[in-house]
Amino acid sequence: VLKMADSSDCVGCAFLFLKSTSTQVDLPSHYKDLQTRPKMFGAIKDMLADVVGDSPGYEILKILSSDPQLVVQVKFNEVEKCRQFLRIYKSGTLQQLLQERLRAALLLSELEVQTELKASSSRLDDYLEKEDHCLSCISEEKPDHQKDEDISRLEECLKNLTVESGKPITLIQSECFPVTPGNTGGDVPQEGSTTPSQFVYLYNHMPCVYFDRPLTAKDHQAFATLVGRSWKKVGRSLAKDCRALRDPTIENIAFEFEREGLYEQAYQLIQKFKQAEGKKATLGRLIEALQDSKLQSLADELMNPQEQNGGCI
Question: What residues does the Death domain cover (predicted)?
Fold first, then answer.
């Protein structure tokens, strides 16, 4: 039996997955845009306030992109707040409020959002009739990190907006995320830092955070060993954003290295990709191409957290 927790305690965490049902609305892309990110964060925070009241009792730790979904990590400090969240989620009211808030934030005439709730490797949507079981799953999901700096910055931004309600929101946004040369959206710039971008990968149905990085020799060899006849399909996916791989490059590789076999053809594909893109030939881009090519098992093989130092949260 779960006991009432003090506000300073942590009951546990839940992950709220959000996805637009329309292919025309990409929530992760909107969130990466520095102009719309504060609005979307405000919409999600206001939805939580509508559902379970103002904090304390809960807080948003992270909002992550897992294309085509946004993943909101919510930490609960009070059991009753957690129970209330589960009940309103079960009723469908949370989904309705979220749609209304995000639709207004993104200035859309229509928006339908699919939601999914997970904790401790369980899809809680399947157990909403068993509230105590859901609470138990959430209590097993203890965070190993503090609130993300991006979230703290957005919260401060909203405070400024509240205090200075007459100030244009574009000024508030530029104060939250200063626009610098080369910064066109996506990752929040850190002053004096060259920290690589992060991306989220669902490994065994759990969101894992990875720092993107250039492909290594080990990645290169693993891909060439495992991809088999599907290397051309992956190459065509990479070619969407890599001019050097566009026709007739892939067919030329196939013809030139036909005698050497599939391993060498796949190896030469990635070699060409790395030569053309340099440091921009990253693990994240290869994983995206594998998923686009329906090669999920190979993506899982390359993205093993123990191999890639990923952090599942």
Answer: 216-306
